[in-house]
Amino acid sequence: MDVIYAIDIAGTFAFAISGALVAIRKKFDVFGVIIIAFVTAVGGGMTRDVLINAHPINWIGDINYIWTILIAVTATFLFRSKIAPLRKTMFLFDTIGISVFTLLGVQKGLSFDLHPFIALVMGMSSAVMGGVIRDVLTNEIPLIFHKEIYASACLAGGIVYLLLYPLHMNEDLLFVISASIIVIIRTIAVQYELELPLIKKDVFNK
Questions:
Q1: Those residues with Cβ within 8 angstroms of residue 28's Cβ, 6 or more apart along the chain or in another chain
Q2: The whole model's pTM is what?
């Protein structure tokens, strides 16, 4: 199995668990948990593929994505008593997911001969849109719009990938370096409670 493909499956698994945990916390039934896990895991990639007219859409062309999501949901139900109370669980799974999907999205954009900036946008879409759909369906404010540095970390990792890409270095090494940038930035941001500047309400009252 190709290393990057294996990482893609791992990211799908991580995002599916992330979505399943949110749905269980919201007291969704089994069907609801599966749907939320599904949109969290493949919603970003599906959005990307629709935008660039890539066919077949990621999960439609590979049944392994479906099996991965179902296994992740099953594992979440079986072991939720052990993983749900852990404060860092959601952070861990989200961080793995966004780092993997950002770079896969950039790669796919470049493979379709898109401008590097558009490929970067596709990478960010791959990373965050699944979470946005999840949060909308579970009546939450999407994480990218508040709190932690999230999309910005994806942006930084994608830029590093694009800067190193012309050097023709080993693709797996390039992937690992760029993904590590995303993980490091988000970890530091959460640990030190770093946030992007907020627009104060007073600005609109003047």
A1: 36, 138
A2: 0.84
